[in-house]
Write a structure and sequence with these properties.
Length: about 300
C-alpha cells in the first residue's frame, strides 16, 4: 500500500516567501469532507477537558471530549500549565463523547507543580521538535519518545531564540515571540488558505510537509502550524530562499510512493500509516477510511 492511494494526485503550487521560510501550497485530488474542531475551540467552550492522570505521569495525560464533534490534536500541539507543559506526540482525532489517555512528551524540564488541568495554547511546536517526536515514535514502534532528546531539542530552541525561561519551557519561547508580534497575521497566510497544506523550506532545503486532505482542517490549524515554522527559521543562518520545484516534486513523490506500516492509535476511530525510507520518514493519520493529516520529513 502506498500513501498516494489515499490522496490521489498532489499538485504543488508556486512558493511564497514568509519571513525566513519558503512555503509551497499543496492541493490533493481526493478531498474528504469532515467537520473537526480544534482543541482551543472546544476548551474555550468547556466542551473538552485535558488533565493529568490520577497518578500523574510525564508521558500521558487524559482528554475528555464532552461534545458531539470530533476534536483534532496536532502532533507537537502545546498543552500548557498543569504540572508541566507537554506536547502531543502524534496527531490524534478524539471522537465526540470519547475519553482517551494520550501520549505526550514534556517540554518544560524544571517544573512539577501546579493544578490538574491543561490550557490549550493554540500553538504548535517547531519543526525540529516535531521531527524528533516522529523519529522517536517510529523507532520505538509505538507512541513513546526519547524524553532526554526532547529536552535537548527544547534547550536548543531556547538558546537559538535567546528567550529566558527559568523552567526551560518551550511555551516561554512562544509567549515571548507572540508578545513581539511574531505570530503571523491572518492576512499574511491568507494566500495559503485555499490549499490543503504546505511544504516548508528553510535555508534552501525542504524541512517538512504537512498535508491535510480535508482542507477545512488546514484552515483551522494553519496559523499555529506556520508559527512553528517561523520560530524554527529564526536561527536560519544562510537566509537562502530558493528551492528548485523539481526538488519539491521529488520530495512529494518519495513520500507518496513509500511503503507504509499500519499502527493503531489510542483513539478508537483512527490509525496511522508510518513510513521510513532512506530519503523520507513520517506518517499519515487515517480516520474513517480517509487521510486526515500526512506529515513527512527529509531523512
Amino acid at each position: 500500500m502506498k500513501l498516494g492511494e489515499w490522496t490521489g494526485k498532489i499538485n504543488v503550487e508556486d512558493g511564497m516567501v514568509l519571513r525566513n521560510c519558503l512555503l509551497f501550497p499543496l492541493k490533493v485530488e481526493k478531498e474528504p469532507v469532515f467537520s473537526f474542531a480544534t482543541v482551543e475551540e472546544l476548551v474555550n467552550e468547556k466542551a473538552v477537558r485535558i488533565e493529568e492522570l490520577k497518578n500523574p505521569s510525564i508521558d500521558s495525560v487524559r482528554i475528555k471530549n464532552f461534545s458531539s464533534t470530533p476534536v483534532f490534536l496536532l502532533d507537537g500541539e502545546i498543552l500548557a500549565e498543569a504540572f508541566q507543559t507537554r506536547v502531543v506526540n502524534t496527531s490524534l482525532i478524539i471522537d465526540g463523547m470519547e475519553e482517551v489517555v494520550i501520549p505526550v512528551s514534556c517540554v518544560e524540564e524544571h517544573r512539577w507543580s501546579g493544578n490538574n488541568e491543561f490550557v490549550a495554547s493554540g500553538m504548535a511546536s517547531t519543526i525540529s521538535l516535531r521531527k524528533e517526536l516522529m523519529k522517536s515514535i517510529i523507532k520505538n514502534k509505538r507512541f513513546k519518545t526519547d524524553q532526554s532528546k526532547i529536552w535537548k531539542t527544547v534547550k536548543s530552541t531556547i538558546k537559538a531564540t535567546g528567550v529566558n525561561s527559568p523552567t526551560s519551557s518551550l511555551y516561554d519561547v512562544y509567549k515571548a515571540y507572540e508578545s513581539r508580534g511574531f505570530i503571523p497575521e491572518d492576512e499574511e497566510i491568507a494566500p495559503l488558505l485555499h490549499s490543503s497544506g504546505v511544504i516548508c523550506a528553510i535555508d534552501g532545503k525542504v524541512a517538512v510537509m504537512d498535508l491535510f486532505p480535508p482542507k477545512e482542517l488546514f484552515k483551522k490549524v494553519a496559523k499555529k502550524l506556520i508559527a512553528g515554522y517561523l520560530i524554527e527559521a529564526i536561527s536560519s543562518k544562510k537566509g537562502k530562499l530558493d528551492v528548485k520545484m523539481s526538488e519539491i516534486s521529488a520530495f512529494v513523490d518519495f513520500i507518496m510512493n513509500t511503503d507504509v506500516k499500519k499502527v493503531y492509535t489510542p483513539a478508537k476511530s483512527s490509525f496511522e500509516l508510518r513510513f521510513s525510507q532512506d530519503k523520507v520518514f513520517g506518517r499519515a493519520v487515517i480516520y474513517r477510511d480517509s487521510a486526515v493529516h500526512i506529515t513527512g520529513f527529509p531523512n
